[in-house]
Each structure stands twice: as C-alpha cells, then as structure tokens.
Structure prediction request, 378 residues.
Amino acid sequence: MSPTLHRPARGTPQPASPALAPEGRAAALGARRRPVAFLMLPAVVLVLACLAAVAFGARSVAPGAALEALGAFFSGSGGAASADIDAAAVLSRVPRTLTAVLVGAALAVSGVALQGATRNPLGDAGLLGLTAGASLAVALGLGLGLSAGLAGVMVLSILGTLAAAVVVYTVAAAASRLGGGSGAATGGAPGPLSLVLAGAAVTAGCTAVTSALLILSPAVLERFRFWTVGSVARSSLEDAAWLAPVIALGLLMVFVAAPGLDALALGDELAHGLGSRPERLRLLLLGATVVLTAAATALAGPVGFVGLLVPHALRRFRPASTRVLVLGCALWGAVLVVAADLAGRLVIAPQEIHVGVTTVVIGVPVLLVLLRRKSVSL
Prediction:
C-alpha cells in the first residue's frame, strides 16, 4: 500500500524557507561581503604603507607634503616640485617603493603557486633554492662578460631559476625513492621534507659557487654586490615599468589556475575524477613560479620568506575562494616588502639595512611560530 502524501490546507501558514529567513539572508550577505572585506583591508594598508615609504627615511617629510609632491609629479609638473628638497626626497623614493610592491606581490603569489603545485607546505622560492639559482646564473653571466642590462639579467634569472628547479626536483625525487618515504607512496613524486632538504643543498651549493666567483673576480664583485643580498634601492622607474607586465602575466597565470588548486590538493587521482587535469595545471603553476621568481630576482635580488609567510598567514583566515587568497597574497606580500624596506631605512638611519635582511629577520620567528603551532606539517 503506497504511503499517503498529506498536503497542508490552503490556509495553513507555511514554514519559512531557510534561504529566505533573516538569518540565512544575513549569512548570505556576509558571505558576499567577506571577499570585499578580505581584500579591502590590505589595499588600504598598502596605500598607507606606500605613503609612509615615500615620506619617511633619512630625511622625513610630512605626509601632506609627500602627497603634494606626488600629485605634482603625476600631474606632469614634477620638474617644479622636484626643485624643493623635500619633494626631491619624496620623488627619489618612488622607484624603490614601486619595486617593493612588485617584488612583494610576485614572491607572495609565487609561494601560493609553488605550494599548490608541489603540495609542499614549505614551498618558497628562497627555501627551495630558486633565487639562489637565479643569483648564480647572473654571477656567471657577469663573469663571462654577458650583458648586464635588465633584459639580459631577466633571461639569466629565468635560466637559473629553471635549472635550480629541475635539480631540486630530481634530487628530491631520487632521495624519496631511495628512502622509501612519501615519494615511494606517490609514484616517485618527492615529499615535502625531501624538497626542503634538496632546496637547502642546492642553495648552499649555488651560494658557495657564487662566493667563489666573487672572490676570484673583483670586477664581478663590484657589479654583483647588489645581488648578494636582496635590495630595492637600485631599481629605477624604467626597470619597474619594464618588468611590471612580466609580473602581471605571472599573477594572471596563477589567478587563472587558482580554482584547480583545491582539486590538486586532493591528489592526482581525485583531481582527475573531478574533471581537472593535474599535469597541465602543475605545469602552468610551475611556469608562473619561474616567471614571478625570475622577475622579482631581476628587480631586487634574492628576497626570502615572503612566499612562505604570506600564504600561510592568510590561510588561517579561511578566504572565500582560492582566487581571493591569491589576490590577498599579492596585496599583503606588497605590504610586507614595503614595510620591510621602510623598517630597514629607519632602524639605523641614515644608513640602511637591505630588504633581503629585514624579511629574514621577520620571517624566521614567524616560521618558528608556525611550526610550533603545527600550522606547517611535514
């Protein structure tokens, strides 16, 4: 006997639909606003950090005067404004501030891409030897008398980054297979700890060879001092404008691939089942990592820990989507490098500490805190 369906009488009041209930509407509205709030805060902080970066230094300028000088510069009357000493000080800091924004955004987003492509929570261009490989390639190029222009440095950085990535992955995969660890369980793919150890070995080797080249050739040392520690002090507006489209291309590549990162984190088999193509996705992410790392290294030299710290810090806030995470990392990465450069100029003014040193000083304690809280697990 089939069950009888009881329909309520026409005049009987119906219960409210959860989607139409006030609580449901508030939750839906909060979900729609969350990405805006997640991105609005770092955008405001970045504007304030950039204003502070151009206003303060060995010669500090009032924020109002700094805004006036910037307005005159961008309106086309910068020649008259630069006659003033304070305005000249402000305008001299614009290139390094713009460089810090580009480098911070590139390195932070490259960290997201590298961690997603390798499924390694410690994926970072500095920790995995990519920046050391780029620096070694530039040192070799300078030693061989190749072009020291930005285009030549960019090509050398890409080649060095690619070579370092291949060596690290090959060594880590071989170590995983021989050790019977996580690589053996995943078809020979290297585990997170193997990648970190291989990256440390490649970094040490590249640094040793680079140091030997600098000792043997004083001419290379004179031209390479900028590359020993990351710095945004020597970049010009022309350099930043030349590499800005390259960095924008890398950011766009990661943004397009971002929805597939969640599927990639589940493993290749499940990703295939969900309709994703992990091989193509991983290749796109690794290509974006090479582009972003090479461009950032060409502009500022080796700057570490940005790609490690920013993604891990933002994941704790559970952004609405992976694309929102990528945009947030770009903004907060820019904030971190701008703030690190400003701190390096103010701590021992009128002398300054390079941004590559200040990011390490900030990054090591934060990394220890992450490990202590088990936010990063090997």
Notes: The mean pLDDT is 78.
